Amino acid sequence: MLALGHPILGDPFYATGPARDHPRLMLHSEVLQFRHPDGGQGMKITAPCPF
User: Fold this and answer.
1) Could you list the residue range(s) of the whole structural domain that residue 40 is in?
2) What are the C-alpha distances in Å from 12 to residues 17, 26, 29, 51?
C-alpha cells in the first residue's frame, strides 16, 4: 500500500507521521479460506471488522 501512497495506519515499519502514530495496526481480513495442512479439509474463518 505504501507504494500507492497509502501506508497502513499503525504500521511501525513503513508508515510515517500521523499514520505511524496510530495505537494499533489498522489492517484486518474479514474472511480467510485455506486448506488445512493435515488432510486438506477446507477451512473458512470469519471475523467481523472491529473498527
Assistant:
1) 24-51
2) 10, 11, 19, 19
pLDDT tens-digit map of 3-40: 788 889 999 988 889 989 989 888 889 999 999 999 99
Q: Does residue 45 form part of some domain?
A: yes
Residue 4 lies in a domain: no
Cβ neighbour number for residue 15 with a 10 Å cutoff: 20
The answer to whether residue 1 is domain-embedded is no
User: Domain for residue 2, yes or no?
Assistant: no
Give the H or E element holding residue 31: strand 31-35
In this structure, are residues 22 and 34 in contact, taking their beta carbons and an 8 Å threshold? no
pTM for this one? Answer: 0.53
SS3 29: coil
